[in-house]
Amino acid sequence: MHQKILLETSIKQEGRFLLTHRMEQALQILQLPRLDLQDLIQQELEKNPLLERKEQKTVSIDPSFLPEKKSLFSSLEEQIHYLFSSKDLPIAQEIIKHIDRKGYLSVSLEELSTHLQKDLILLEKILLQIHKKMEPAGIGSRSLQECLFLQIKRKSPRSLEEKIIKTQFSNLLHHRFALIQKELKITKEELQVSIQKISSLSLHPGGSFFEELAPSRFPDIVLKKRKNTWHISIHQEEIFTLPISSYLSKDKEEKKQMHDWISSGKWLMQSLTRRKDLLLKLTIYLVKKQNAFFEGTGNLQPIHMKEAAEELGMHESTISRAVYEKYIDCPKGIFSIRSFFTYSLRTSSGKTSNAFALQTLQKLVAEEKKAFSDNDLSQKLKDRGVYCSRRTITKYRKKLKIPSSIRRNWTKSTPL
Fold it and tell me: Is the pTM of this model over 0.90?
């Protein structure tokens, strides 16, 4: 039976021309994730007495979403308020938003610097403070070596273990223990003691915390299926302007102020309507294109943003802004909207998305007893009908933060 898509909100098409600075502000509203948008609306409500919130329906919360103990993100959020000044706090908040559940920084500082339009040196200084003073030790690391080094530096500063991690890490991973002894002029017994201490360090400093979504990951869109109908809801506050007859005044300054409030209020409502309209159109498009994935009967299909932009009659940059840090809650879980736009890979039966290759790669690594090399993984994917070169496997492995086969074997074995 042909499926319908039911929209649980009404949308008005607006086509008015806005001044350049307001166009920029409208683009900012489009790009803001759910909670950041709520903050902006609250600021506008405080500034403009003609704006009011619409009554919101009471939303029941799944008890499973409520943490029984402190999460990694809430712990970091609490610490940065004590550690950083009001000037550096927003940057620190942005950094911890990109710390994954294992405790590693998931983006490069160069990317954050570009996104925040802040000096890279400033970001490096703030990350250094996180590394030095925040708990757990090793949080915000960018590599396994840095993770272990930060932990041992706090636990045993200027120790043999610190020196081994700093100068002999490659030899350590490759089990070249005789070479470490020779380089550092130490005995086998001294090396054994040091390696035992290093082995006690955590590979995933964030792993002991309850997993909770960072604020930027609360869903903007909810997609549910009832019977044979998909229901789409957009999480966005509604506002309206108060009647202005009681505010009319003959005073010139008051009339000007009134005009500014009215103009500002209309602009905000128009921008919010456009944002909701675009997210709805985008979700409908994704449901049509990725229906098998949402139904649980297939994998993600390759879609390019350019393709979506052409079909929806928009510029590709508009789509890019719309999906920025937006999340969708669907029957299969909470996903980044950006993750639905994937590249295609050749398969034995045609094409599939790179997301399927990533998922298969993760599964292969999770099930391995002895770590597969990238060549092995490439062959195993090929056996499953997905053609990925060794170089592509290496690229995907790094994207998923999967260590090399040498490192994976090291973590599986007991040194010495």
Answer: no
